[in-house]
Amino acid sequence: METEELIQKVRKIEIKTKGLSSNIFAGEYHSAFKGRGMAFSEVREYQYGDDVRDIDWNVTARLGKPYVKVFEEERELTVMLLVDVSGSLDFGTQTQTKRQLLTEIAATLAFSAIQNNDKIGVIFFSDKIEKFIPPKKGRKHILFIIRELLGFTPESNSTDIGQAVEFMTNAIKKRCTVFLLSDFIDSRDYTNQLTVANRRHDLVALQIYDRRMVELPDVGIINMLDAETGRTTFIDTSSRSVRQAHHEWWIHHQSLLRDAFTKSNVDNASIRTDEDYVRALMNLFRRRS
Fold it and tell me: Count of CB atoms within 10 A of residue 252's CB?
């Protein structure tokens, strides 16, 4: 991408996403994640209405009556964007590709974090860790992240979500909020990595998908390219059985994905390339508030 073109795109996405994060997400983002960066302060005797999950069972057993842990909100959170840059993100049949939508969502989250006085970092991954940007504050850092989101070229086209999640878990020592942005086109089972990561951090998964992943149109014979392997296949979309098989694959894939999120207790949302991602994120934030 030419430098001038990149600068214009950075500016355009900054104007749009900064406005969204300022006017729409500010309160919702803060209320959704403010309780996730908490430091233990002291214990006090249980009072009616206290969350039973805060009971300190060791102190309760020692003193013979219930005591709860008191937490103080940390002054800042660390937010990590775990961004899939594999080849399948270049697919898109509607107004934009999955990669374009993912980039805009990531930029919006980045501006929301920085306006909440949080640090923000990024890990780009394919089937390897492509780039690690340590968390920092500041507009200059945010614009650097957006430039990387727009112009980054991965070395590999394949996907390994489990490896990326495991790397993040080990690389970031302090508890943080992690947004995993991907289309989740990965045949490996990464449930265990999600579970471990979500115990140590606060992990949120955002699936980006295209409507043609759900169902194929009846447009005759088409040449399909697998962006991750480079293989091409001719498919007869006029065949009802072919379209049905594709749809059943998608249902099975989504079922496995939901199971992985449920078992790992990971909050998640699925966002289609032709849908309003603002509404999807707001709903997600409100569920967490």
Answer: 10
Note the pLDDT tens digit of each residue in 216-251.
Answer: 776 777 666 565 666 777 777 777 888 888 889 889
The Cα–Cα gap between 108 and 249 comes to: 32
Element (H, E) at 262: helix 240-264
Give the 3-state secondary structure of 38-102: EEEEEEEECCCCCCHHHECHHHHHHHCCCEEEEEEECCCCEEEEEEECCHHHHCCCCCCCHHHHH
Could you give the CA distance from residue 277 to residue 223 in angstroms, rounded to a whole number? Answer: 30
User: β-strand 177-182 against 78-84: which pairing, if any?
Assistant: parallel
pLDDT digits (tens, 9 = 90+) for 18-76: 777 766 666 677 677 765 555 556 788 888 877 888 888 988 898 999 988 876 555 56
What pTM was estimated for this model as a whole?
A: 0.80
